[in-house]
């Protein structure tokens, strides 16, 4: 199963459309958005030929984001615990949060209950393996903050593989 991971799209419709196009080209089965759509109009392009999951980001001030996601996908509020099909019939367990709190992200990674923890917020892509759990930040739109990516990035996770090597980051042209 191939999972698309995206975060921090911040109302940039061109970026959202580029992400959806990449996910469709790659043939993802599901997409997980780690928050910060900002407004409902930047949610609707994700109504595509894949399952869709989303959590709330700290900039998702319009409560209609939730009802817009729920028209075609699953909105999980502050955090989600998801399970996807993996290799050999095993499940791949994923926790998702926006990432506003490093304490929460670290607790999810360190608890050992999840194979992967997805989060955004920093606009800096990364993959880190700790004691068998992989922390994945897909990146986000480039913003003028130290450490943020200089290009829009998303990620994919191939659940038939395991570990950090199962994650691929993609740079997108808007």
How would you summarize what this structure contains?
With about 170 residues, the chain is α/β, with parallel strands linked by helices.
Description:
The protein is of the alpha/beta class and 174 residues long. The strands form two sheets. It has a six-stranded mixed beta sheet with strand order 4-3-2-1-10-11. A five-stranded mixed beta sheet has the order 5-6-7-9-8, covered by helices on one side. The relative contact order is 0.20. It starts with a strand and ends with a strand. A hairpin with an 8-residue loop joins strand 10 and strand 11. It has three helices and eleven strands; from the N terminus they run βαββαβββαβββββ.
Count of alpha and pi helical runs? 3
**Tally of strands:** 11
Taking strands numbered 1, 2, ... along the chain, how are they ordered across the largest sheet?
4-3-2-1-10-11
Distance between the termini: 26 Å
Unreliable runs: none
State the helicity in percent bands.
10-25%
Structural class: alpha/beta
Task: Please give the largest β-sheet.
Answer: 6 strands, mixed
Shape descriptor reads: globular
Order of helices and strands: EHEEHEEEHEEEEE
Radius of gyration: 14 Å
- Average residue pLDDT: 96
Strand content: 25-35%
């Amino acid at each position: 199963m191939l999972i698309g991971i995206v975060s921090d799209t911040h109302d940039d419709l061109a970026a959202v459309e580029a992400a959806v196009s990449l996910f469709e080209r790659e043939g993802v089965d599901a997409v997980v958005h780690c928050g910060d759509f900002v407004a409902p109009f930047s949610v609707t392009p994700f109504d595509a030929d894949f399952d869709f999951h989303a959590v709330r980001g700290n900039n998702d001030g319009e409560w209609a984001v939730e009802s817009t996601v729920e028209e075609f996908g699953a909105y999980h509020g502050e955090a989600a615990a998801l399970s996807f099909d993996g290799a050999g019939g095993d499940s791949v367990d994923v926790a998702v949060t926006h990432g506003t709190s490093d304490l929460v992200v670290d607790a999810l990674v360190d608890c050992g209950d999840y194979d992967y923890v997805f989060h955004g917020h920093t606009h800096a892509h990364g993959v880190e393996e700790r004691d068998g759990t992989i922390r994945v930040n897909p990146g986000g739109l480039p913003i003028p903050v130290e450490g943020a990516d200089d290009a829009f990035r998303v990620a994919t996770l191939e659940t038939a593989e395991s570990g950090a090597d199962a994650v691929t980051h993609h740079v997108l042209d808007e």
